[in-house]
Amino acid sequence: EVAKDKNGVDQVLLRNSRGASARVSLHGGQVLSWKTEKGEELLFTSTKAVFKPPKAVRGGIPICFPQFGARGNLEQHGFARNRIWKIDDNPPPLTRGEIKDKSCIDLLLKPSEDDLKIWPHSFEFRLKICLTADGNLTLISRIRNINCKPFSFSIAFHTYFSISDISEVRVEGLEILDYLDNLRDKQRFTEQGDALTFESEIDRVYLSSSDLVAVLDHERKRTFVIRKEGLPDVVVWNPWEKKSKSIVDLGDEDYKQMLCVDGAAIEKPITLKPGEEWTGRLELSILPSS
Ligand code: BG6
């Protein structure tokens, strides 16, 4: 189901037979909504979100590509999230792991002439977004080098989870990992043994995590499960009170209801030779918890 938003940009609505849904905008290839069969929204959107290109909407799952943050000469988090993607009518089949019983959309981003001026690497970025029969959300990204020289990129699926209260959640699966702390000059530290809880601003890249990370929300009795492949790193971000006030499209109190936990490849950029393709997978699901 494709419909235009008020700026004339196409949005795709995915539904499964039980009534779960996901909404994807061609602006950025960004997932804007993911709902359970009961209609509960699982992704956060800012109360001050601006739904107007070229800037990415504050919420959902913007894609950071080909650069993460300010780690390069490109605009913050790269340009992919600010571009208009196309629907890919004839996507090549996946080499493995076809998903059964799903509702999917295939998107494609190719660099424009202007993009090639700032990042001179021809690529095809295919993004398959699927809602499964169980209501899981799967994002499969395939990036191909169609140039005659190698290039390297970083990528992150900047997932804004909707949570009851930042003080009530914890993240499991990052214990004892090394991380780069953006709040301390990107220096490297080692996480101590316990699950991560939150009482102040956090902006970290956890390195080489296992492919399973969980966000537990005690109050909502819900656990988000993040399964990933090809995405070794995990970004954890919450701006907290002070930083929130400097972000124009984020409400002052919004930070309490959001936590970004991204599957990513940042510390070791991915290099593709001419003709080579990289695949990354992110699968989000929820479990009831006590
Ligand atoms: C995080 C970065 O992942 O994204 C932060 O590490 C940044 O430094 C945040 O503030 C949000 O970025 P943006 O560009 O969407 O405001």
Automatic annotation (TrEMBL):
Keyword line: Isomerase
A molecular-function term among this protein's GO annotations: glucose-6-phosphate 1-epimerase activity
Enzyme Commission (EC) number: 5.1.3.15
Pfam families: Aldose_epim
GO cellular component terms listed in the entry, alphabetical order: cytoplasm
Top-level EC class as recorded in UniProt: isomerase
Domain of life: Eukaryota
Gene3D superfamilies for this protein: 2.70.98.10
Annotated catalysed reactions: alpha-D-glucose 6-phosphate = beta-D-glucose 6-phosphate
Binding site for substrate: R58, Q76, R81
GO biological processes: carbohydrate metabolic process
SUPFAM superfamilies (UniProt xref): Galactose mutarotase-like
UniProt similarity note: Belongs to the glucose-6-phosphate 1-epimerase family.
Official protein name in the record: glucose-6-phosphate 1-epimerase
Organism name: Cucurbita maxima (Pumpkin)
Gene coding for it: LOC111483425
